[in-house]
């Protein structure tokens, strides 16, 4: 039995970059890798079996990784300490931690970059994510300057100390519906590109938070309730925005006002990325 | 007052890559970033002052960083929990942690890559190091595939779990004398290039350790005492080699036999790289 871990990842703003080669397809943008994430255990099994928080599931993105890396049937159990299903890059952290664990279980002798590339392809080909994996490999507050798989995409980091991020889940949001609307994609790409350009001038946490909020509003992606939650945090002196793509608000500084909107989860920024446990 | 941390870095094998542009100059090779490293405190002062483990020192590499990043005189105090002076990349961790701290103290709004680049230039221009900084920014067991400053050099990682590294300092070694001998440089480069090519085929911890040992022996850099220490570890079932460039032996697995050769230091592999504290 081997275990591996990957951080979750909250995107603040992004631009979709299409490419016929899935290794080059992905996104530019910026987000936070959170230490709360996904732990995956892998053991040999009679047939491939996927568990998410103890319950059998399809886990298509992880299944792609298993198909490419496992020499024999495996049982893969991923446990999350963030909400699964929108806003936390759960499919990416599941696929990435599975890739690291399978490399160890089968002594594949692959490098982290090679393993990350398989997880990126799994995300892009299943349309479950566009840039979480490279950020989850890296850790910290990750600027995705150029899109693509690990080894192809280019990242930089916003300097940060030990800070806490608070978040609250307000509802659900259909990623699929949003990403199939060409007008919405044009909005996302125009505002995402502008936000990245701004951020690169002065890459600080405060700028990241401010640009993320502007992106959420200008694209029209933010819900009314999420906007209320962001404003409540700002009135308390904190900074907040919406996690892309989920009806989730995340905040730094004083995030206590989030508790009026639901149960508040708290995580530190991940120091370092995914790893074997 | 601000504080920052950088891991130390033990190189197993390397190839020197000269370039007239110091951002492109550096080394290829592989080494381990250790969580035992350098903590640097920076405060405003009356004049620039450098302390290493509490004692005033010249700290030329860090002084280069201060000259480029500090708007006012500063007192910089670096405390190491590894030996300073050969084998642990102490000048790199001092310069890098200083750059991170100065960015915070003066609200410079620079990215980690921009700060890492200043520390890399400081190392290369002072001839105190050739590839420690990019590895110390990254953390883990770092393969330096292409030389140069962060953003220019290309790195990958060997997958690793929570393992401990033991080390013992046997004596001192003059880096300067070694690196001014053209015949020695040719040896280092030929064997370093071959070791990297081998490692990239199967990038595992065991291969890294074996190739490092072969490099240390084939280049003639290993001292007789260091060779005895490596053999003692191997007889006990562990793996060991020499830290480049210092008369230091490092080991994984059972490193207990090192205690016959001196006081044994122990560190985990650094998960994640340098950061603000």
* Helix vs. strand class of chain A: alpha+beta
Overall shape of chain A: it is: globular
Rg of chain A (C-alpha, Å): 18 Å
Q: Please give the oligomerization state of what you see.
A: homodimer
How is the main sheet of chain A built?
Answer: 8 strands, mixed
Q: What gap, in angstroms, lies between the N and C termini of chain A?
A: 11 Å
Total strand segments of chain A: 12
Beta percentage of chain A is 25-35%
Spell out the helices and strands of chain A N to C.
Answer: EEEEHEHHHEEEHHHHEEEE
Provide a count of the helices of chain A. 8
Low-confidence stretches of chain A: none
Largest interface: A-B, 33 and 33 residues
The pLDDT mean of chain A sits at 95
Helix content of chain A: 25-40%
């Amino acid at each position: 039995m081997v275990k591996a871990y990957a951080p979750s990842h909250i995107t603040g703003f992004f631009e979709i970059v299409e490419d016929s080669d899935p290794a080059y397809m992905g996104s530019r943008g910026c987000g936070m890798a959170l230490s709360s994430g996904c732990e995956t255990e892998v053991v040999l099994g009679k047939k491939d079996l996927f568990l998410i928080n103890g319950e059998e599931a399809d886990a298509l993105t992880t299944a792609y990784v298993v198909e490419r890396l496992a020499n024999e049937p495996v049982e893969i159990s991923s446990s999350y300490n963030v909400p699964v299903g929108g806003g936390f890059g759960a499919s990416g952290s599941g696929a990435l931690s599975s890739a690291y664990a399978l490399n160890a279980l089968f002594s594949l002798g692959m490098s982290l970059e090679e393993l990350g590339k398989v997880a990126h392809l799994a995300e892009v080909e299943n349309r479950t994510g566009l840039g979480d994996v490279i950020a989850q490999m890296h850790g910290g507050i990750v600027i995705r300057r150029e899109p693509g798989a690990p080894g192809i995409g280019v990242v930089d980091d916003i300097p940060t100390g030990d800070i806490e991020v608070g978040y609250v889940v307000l509802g659900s949001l259909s990623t699929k519906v949003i990403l199939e609307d060409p007008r919405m994609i044009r909005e996302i790409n125009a505002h995402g590109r502008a936000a990245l350009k701004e951020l690169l001038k002065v890459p600080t946490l405060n700028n990241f938070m401010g640009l993320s909020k502007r992106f959420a509003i200008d694209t029209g992606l933010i819900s009314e309730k999420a906007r209320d939650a962001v404003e409540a945090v700002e009135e308390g002196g904190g900074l907040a925005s919406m996690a892309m793509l989920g009806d989730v608000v995340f905040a730094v500084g004083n995030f206590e006002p989030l508790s009026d909107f639901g149960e508040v989860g708290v995580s530190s920024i991940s120091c370092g990325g995914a790893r074997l446990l």
